[in-house]
Amino acid sequence: MVDSEKGEGPELTKKFGVQGFPTFVMVNTSGSESDRWMGYETAAE
Asked: pTM (2 decimals)?
């Protein structure tokens, strides 16, 4: 997990084009995005 406001977070937020939170980006071993999901969901969802 990366904090978008600290350390490498701002750079990664820009690299992966994150526009809202929460956003989860799955990255493969080559560093490319392999999946993305955004938004809040309840436990039931």
From this structure: 0.76
Q: How far apart are CA 35 and CA 24, in angstroms?
A: 8
CA-CA distances (angstroms) from residue 34 to 17, 27, 29? 14, 5, 10
Confidence (pLDDT) at 1: 86
Nearest to 22 by CA among 11, 9, 37: 37
**DSSP of 31-42:** S-EEEEEES---
Tokens of 12: 């990664």
Query: Which residue's entry shows tokens 């820009």?
Result: 14
Quote the distance between the C-alpha of residue 39 and its chain's center.
Answer: 11
